[in-house]
Design brief:
Elements (H helix, E strand, L loop, with lengths): L5 E5 L2 H12 L4 E2 L3 E5 L4 E6 H5 L15 E5 L3 H8 L6 E7 L4 E7 L5 E7 L2 H6 L3
Parallel strand pairs: 1-4, 5-8
Antiparallel strand pairs: 2-3, 3-4, 6-7, 7-8
Length: 131
């Protein structure tokens, strides 16, 4: 089995697609009701509520998620923080060293989905933090 994509259901595909285009620096491919942004390790899919309603009208509720985090590994979290300053209105977590060996920051997309950009810390930094 292979995970094909993580799909976000939204009321406005164009707004979310533009946000992820700017944040991920990947061009969305698709239509007005469904787009994909393919990273090197997986795909972020964005679809309209109406396209999901075809399967079951109660299956998905746009902008209602508070339990999933989209994790993206980046080379340098601090550099990404600086780059995203003009795109992200508010950061949930500024770049922070985590005890499990990552440096991460958190922010939300226009629908409120939580996004984590993280970098793996070097062994020397982990040792200095006793983790």
């Amino acid at each position: 089995m292979k995970l094909a994509s993580a799909r976000l259901v939204t009321k406005d595909v164009s707004v979310l697609a533009e946000f992820y285009r700017a944040v991920l620096r990947i061009e969305p491919v698709g239509s007005d009701c469904y787009v994909e942004l393919a990273t090197t390790s997986g795909t972020v899919a964005i679809s309209s509520k109406s396209s999901v309603d075809i399967f079951n009208a109660a299956a998905a509720d746009p902008a209602a998620n508070r339990s999933v985090i989209l994790d993206f590994e980046v080379e340098d979290v601090d550099r990404e923080r600086h780059r995203l300053d003009a795109i992200i209105g508010q950061f949930i977590l500024e770049p922070t060293d985590q005890p499990w060996g990552m440096r991460s920051m958190l922010f939300r997309d226009p629908d409120g989905n939580l996004i984590n950009f993280f970098s793996k810390r070097s062994e020397a930094v982990k040792a200095a933090h006793n983790c």
